[in-house]
TrEMBL record:
It comes from Cellulomonas rhizosphaerae. One of its GO terms (molecular function) is hydrolase activity, acting on glycosyl bonds. The keyword Disulfide bond does not apply. InterPro entries: Glyco_hydro_beta-prop_sf, Mannoside_phosphorylase. Belongs to the glycosyl hydrolase 130 family. Keywords: Glycosidase, Glycosyltransferase, Hydrolase, Transferase. The keyword Transcription regulation does not apply. It comes from the Bacteria. SUPFAM superfamilies: Arabinanase/levansucrase/invertase. This is Glycosidase.
Amino acid sequence: MTADPDWVRRTDVLLRPDPARVVSALFLPGQETVTAGESRSGKVLERVMALSDDEVAAELDALALAFDGRHRDLRSVWAAHFRLVQHRLGDPSEVDADRRALVGATFTHEVTLEGAALFNPSVVAHPDQSGVVAGSLRFVLTLRAVGEGHVSSVELRTGTIDAAGSVALDPAPDVAVRAEVRPATYSRAGFEHQLADLGGDLTNAEFVLARLGPTFDRDELDRALGELREQRVTRGAAVRTVEMFEWMAACTYAVEFPADSATGERVLMPHGPAESHGIEDVRMVRLETGEYVGTYSAYDGATVSVQMLRTWDLVGFTATRLSGPGARDKGLALFPRPVGGRRLALSRADRESNGVCSSADLLHWDEPVSIQRPVQGWEVVQLGNCGSPIETEDGWLVLTHGVGPMRVYSIGALLLDLDEPTVVVGRLERPLLTPAPDERSGYVPNVVYSCGALLHGRTLVLPYGTSDTATRIALVDLDALLAELRARPTKEPR
């Protein structure tokens, strides 16, 4: 590891994981572990129903004292969880309001969001800049929060940077708010792309697709799948085809946060089957249209796939699974605008070098063109990107990460041609950021890593994770960085 350039300044911003930050979730006794067995819900319900009215009231008073300050509208959560188990009761209508609440609370538990880590951030301009003084910018961080069971979620935090380069994060909200699921709209082209990746005999899939429009909802999909089920006797593998469509539909979802929730309260938790064990390393970028798009690694406990979040207001989000050779492995990062009439993205499909791939619809990504291979000592193990390219007058600025001996992660940079982004016009020979002594220890030692930076005037705002544990922010002098990149032109071997 070497000293960082003098044109990089670490700020005093430090976000550490807070184990007190929790959300509520459904709890089913007997089914709470990986080796879950038979549900004990029936026996638990019997014991709750056997409590006296005074005991119920006393329990609710104690729960309110212990938990109300840690959650937003906990009674609504209990009511929802009561409805999920009420079928086990003889006549739910005979259960009074207090006992309903206690039943719901009995089938609820807290889940820590960031008990283990809060790291790998990206940063974008906040959609609401009202009230911000001239020369300042309000921003939004996306952060990977790792909690119970090493499951990763996405947290949002807000802050500002002023004209003098002073960074201030807003205080963390007292509570975390989960999004509510909304009906999703599906893309036939998106399903076609995914089916091509999944492979196999697509005859039955084509039968279903022929009954769907360019976009369709769940009811339309169910009708098409129903027609296939009716022909399952004469159509081999129909059951498998139905399962594939059900899985793709489950991976595509829409969620929405309460309109009155603060941005920093919002937490995106895993929802679809492809991300059941985590939403990891969101690379958020604001497109030229004003839409925010974040690509991320979806982990199901065994495999990783690339998915995409889309939102206009950071209130309503949609998630879609991506496909194609460019969307293999991790680290797809979109360019903020089209180049040459097509959408482009950085890709690390071969797991060790940086490339650029293209798409006609943001859903299917073509084979990437290699632009950078590991050649420096600090990157000999592998390369990747640290978020979406940033447009400058000299070219597309790409922050990279390199992994070297002792598995040390450092952050470097590339400069790509504005009109031909597969052409590298400059490359740092040394990292611009390496783990400082107080950043080297953590869940994964010796790592600095970012999922996206932001340009504010002539300053590059670079949030980064430290050793898969905490988050800091560095400021980079853009002019000095560009000068060093221009002084080291390079032509990558083909």
